[in-house]
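Sync notes, pocket subgroup
Present: LS, DG
LS reminded everyone that the earlier model was apo-only. Rerun requested with coenzyme A included. Inputs:
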Amino acid sequence: MVAGCGADLAVEGPDRRLVAAGSCEHSAAVPGSLDLIEGAALRFRLTPYVTGPDALASLDKLLSRWRDHLAVVPEAAGEDTAAVIAWPSRDVAGVRALVAHGLAPLGVIAARSASRRPAMIADCPPGVRIRRAGPADLDVVARMGTEVVRFDAHFGGVIERPRAAEALRAEVAGLLDEHEPWAWLAERDGDPVGLLVAERPEAAGWIAPRTCQSPLAYLLALFVAPAERGAGIGTALTGHLHCEAAAARVSVILQYEQVNPLAVPFWGHQGYRPLWTTWEARPARMLR
Ligand SMILES: CC(C)(COP(=O)(O)OP(=O)(O)OC[C@H]1O[C@@H](n2cnc3c(N)ncnc32)[C@H](O)[C@@H]1OP(=O)(O)O)[C@@H](O)C(=O)NCCC(=O)NCCS
């Protein structure tokens, strides 16, 4: 990502005290990167700080300032752009302001605490076996990872870019090369039917600032072939990660699409709780 303007925005209350502030960061996703799959090519990200007795009104004013700021930034008028704000999922007081300004909740960052949730490996359906994946499985891991991108692309947050498969392959190749990778394949009679791949804490530092839980692993992808869904394979794959993470006292964080009807109940049942919801206006000029 390339740093942008870093404009500072501030809102004063009736008594001239500061009630909201934010900085707008402009960034461009690197062509061919995984980051480019996860959103618009050019992103204008507001980091908000809201205080004062009326958080809703304060955020509303801050969003208006941000909209006015973006209206005079020529690049924000482009098609492949987004105005992005990560809002604490449980901070319900600000939600109406986000909606009123034309932002949609696209993604959720959720975490599962190592200390608060017991881990266990559930049985697989008959005929299915789970084993750790390794470098020799790169083709199937990359293919199933690309299936997750394709599925998530239905919901508007993730974009299946022309070089998506290539970017994902490069990412998972590094993870599979590690000693005892946190990656597992489910197989029926030797044929792959499911995949889980995660970044160990050493590789997940990029998302660590999103939570105070530490150490932290990032669950990059979970996929079960459509004909095999709803029979417990996803739960069993997840159990393998949770048991290894629990043994290492590692919490797990992940991202899912807010309207993915398979992911939302699944992750809730697996013990994940939403931390941050990513609200976006796409293109950025749709911020109102
Ligand atoms: C999300 C996904 C991996 C789940 O895999 P799965 O194998 O279907 O998961 P499970 O069978 O373990 O659990 C699915 C549901 O079936 C239920 N279930 C589990 N075992 C069952 C069984 N033996 N009999 C009946 N139902 C069962 C579970 O309770 C679960 O319900 P929930 O979603 O309300 O929690 C799968 O739907 C998928 O690949 N989706 C597309 C890609 C995707 O969305 N990935 C996640 C992106 S963040």
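DG: The mean pLDDT is 94.
LS: The first helix runs from residue 34 to 37.
Action: DG to write up.
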